[in-house]
Amino acid sequence: GALLVSERIDREELCGALSPCSLSFEIVVENPLELYSGAVEIQDINDNDPVFPSSQARLEISESVAAGARFPLESAQDPDVGINSLQTYQLSANPHFALDVQTRVDGSKYAELVLEKELDREEQRELHLVLTALDGGSPPRSAHVQIHIDVVDANDNAPVFNQSTYKASMRENTPSGTLVARISAYDLDDGPNGDVVYSFSSHTPAKVRELFALDSATGELRVKGQLDYEETKLYEIYLQAKDKGAVPGVAHCKVLVEVVDVNDNAPEVTVTSVYSPVPEDAAPGTVVALLSVTDLDSHDNGLILVQVSDVNDNAPKSSQNSYDIYVLENNVPGIPILNVSATDPDLGRNALLSYTLLQGDRTVGHIFSINQENGTLYLLTSLDHEDQVEFSMMVQVQDGGSPPLATNVSVSVFVTDLNDNAPTVLYPHPNTTATYTDVVAPGSPAGHMVTKVVAVDADAGYNAWISYTLLQATDPSLFSVGLHSGEIFTARQLREDDIPQHTLVILLKDHGEPVLSSSATVSISVAEMVKEVLTDLTDVAPANDPRKHVTFYLILAVILVSAAFFITMLSVGIFKCYKWRQSKELFNSSRSTLYRTPGPFHHIDAVRGGLMPPNFYHQVYLTTDSRQSDLLCKKPFTSSPLGSRQSTMRNGEPGLYHQIVGTAGQLPTPAE
């Protein structure tokens, strides 16, 4: 007696919207025979989504519609019944519309859009909303429809000019058709409501309409007639813009046209009174006639003009009295380095300036050139800081007057240094055939200075700062070199088992960019006495020098010339002493002004090995005047320690300065 389901049951197919949905049947029972009637109620489940008739809906709503207006929307359908049927609608968030859900008599739901805030097409031309239909199932099923709202324009905006007043200036002889001004107005409405037409205002005088023409479509105001400054100096033109709506909006503006005077009227001379006849004995200054001159033109066009001719009474004036220019050495020839600027308030040729380079120094004309017309100074050659650091010159600026007037401008060019020179070794001399060996005694303690590498760098400043490092050594543990002094020290105490001969290679580097370097080779002998070193040196055969005879003759010539000069100076001194005794008073009065002492000296430090110590040094100072001379004799230099010697070369003030340096050639003792 079990009742079974033979196929899938679809309530919506069997009963549709009818509720409740039931199926009736009869059952026959035998033994005894009986007839029973029964019914099966088909209960609904939420197996259907709400459905809108279309996925999109389009509405056209005028922007003039007042708030509170209602707009019915198409309803969604849900075949389910009861709580599973369509229960409500929802609307996406927006500032203008709200959703009102209503219930029909049969219980179905429908929705209406309610306008809460008035639309403005000029602010937003269209709106996009989403309407959602929801049933009462758990979870609820839903459907969506896109609502596109077109905001229909209403003529609610009048045209607006981009400015209320336009101004223009026109010469009185301006030809017809010349553009005076272009007015522009805009209307936020759409279609005919936004089309703008330009015209003269109703109260515009007929005279203005005769002189000016207005394009109704473009708003261009042009000259139509002949303007006359003497008749009217200013025109005030009122214009308007209208749209093409049913009730057109209107905007107004004005154009102020100033007529500019043109010198189109000749002066008129009127004789107001004449005193005639004039007596022959009339005094100078007697009034003969009164004249009046008038000109209808205005301002300068109405004056009687008296021209004043220019006189060359102003010299050129430079913006600067002097220029300091800095140029990197090794420059490219032909580059401009300066533009000398000058002005002249005169007129015509009197203000025509030319620039000339005054060649105070002969080399200036070969190195620099100036453009005579614009004052641009050029470098003709490449400069070398080591050759010359500074150039001074004068630039003459001259006008074209008669006679011409000129101004001189001082120009100083400073050559800045580049690191283009590697360090040069002075000692030991790298290009000599003689062998210099420095001596250090056995057992010398650590820190004992043996010798010194002397080098110079032709560059300047940081580029000439030399550092010394030990690149290679026979015994690297025995010697060290001062980083900035070049002094070679013993790094440890010398031992008996140390080899007697050492060769050091010193690397010299400057601090320029890029870094340049050179090297020096130093020979050091470990010996008790200098004699031991000499024994080793005798094995070295001197190289044959083909120029030794020439050197001999040159030395002989120098000695002879020096001796003759010394005798001459001695004779002059004796003669002056004799004259001094005769005119002691004259000598005393002029002593303070004629005698010169040597000025500041520049020196080069040269350290040598112990083979050639200086022995004597004489200086003779002579003044530019022959009244007096001094002879200064200095004692022989004392020996410097560690086999090094120092000599000084000095340059004196202008005048005559002579020095004699001689060497005895003997070797120093080990103690020295």
TrEMBL record:
It is a single-pass type I membrane protein. Its main location: membrane. GO terms for molecular function: calcium ion binding. Residues 53-161, 162-269, 319-425, 432-544 form the Cadherin domain. Pfam families: Cadherin, Cadherin_2, Cadherin_C_2. Signal peptide: none annotated. It is found in: Cell membrane. SMART domains: CA. GO terms for biological process: homophilic cell adhesion via plasma membrane adhesion molecules. The chain crosses the membrane at residues 552-575. Keywords: Calcium, Cell adhesion, Cell membrane, Glycoprotein, Membrane, Repeat, Signal, Transmembrane, Transmembrane helix. InterPro entries: Cadherin-like_dom, Cadherin-like_sf, Cadherin_C, Cadherin_CS, Cadherin_N, Protocadherin/Cadherin-CA. The keyword Glycoprotein applies. It comes from the Eukaryota. One of its GO terms (cellular component) is plasma membrane. This is PCDGK protein. The gene is Pcdhgc3.
